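anyone else get weird line breaks when pasting these?? whatever heres mine. first is seq + tokens for prot A
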Amino acid sequence: MERFETSTAEETRALGRQLAKDLAPGAILALVGDLGCGKTAFVKGVVDAFGDGEEVTSPTFTLVNEYAGTVPVYHFDVYRLDHPSVEECDWMDDYFFADGICLIEWADNIREVLPEHTVRIVFSKNPQKGEDYREIILC
């Protein structure tokens, strides 16, 4: 388990860039945390490491956005899915076992269908430490 603290959205993004150095095609990161906890800022940082993070938007309605770069990044937002069956999510295998990196916001909603090698990252706020404070734990 690794624990990080950030105090601004840019620090959270920088952490994404830093951790992306250790990612290879086939990596799957399950991003867990409430609204506004920094998940999308983190994704922007990871995409920065392989391409242009400025193009990152949360794919709440499309479910997945694809970002081209030196390594493709597949950005999921499964907020609208409520514990679907494996059969309902079989289309995700095309991404999970492809040549890119998968970043999945609200991943606990589909935890039953995530591959075993998925790395869980938990984002949380602590208003007592500041409005933009985030604790980020890799499990």
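and prot B, same format (seq, then tokens)
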Amino acid sequence: MTISQEQIFVYGSLRSGFQNPAYQYISQYFSLVGNAKVKGRLYHMGNFPAAQPCNEEIYIIGELYAAKNNDEFAWAISQLDDYEGIHTEEGETEYYKRQQTTVYINGQTTNAWIYWYAQPITDKPSIASGDIFDFVQQKND
């Protein structure tokens, strides 16, 4: 799949189903390409999910978005960086890092930005399905 637009893969509070106020921002600057997945492990951190990359055939379920206007991408992604806490002050902990990753969508691959959790994860439950929606649904049943 060849895509000339800048893209972002989201798996947690930025997904459309959460109706997080930050999603309104995403929908203003990005268009939904579709449901997708990336190789990685998803963890439940209490109030939020955290993703870490892996090379195994384990996937995180999420959504792929493409920038509506590539000229506005740098500004738009910097706002998401602020939301995810990428730009920390001295002495503060940086919990996420934004990196390019391979995204699997409709039997094809493309590249997109993702926010990986940047801290060690210990004693936190893994979300086996890779889908925070499934996890929340099972937890509420």
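btw re prot B: The longest strand covers residues 30-44. The mean pLDDT is 88.
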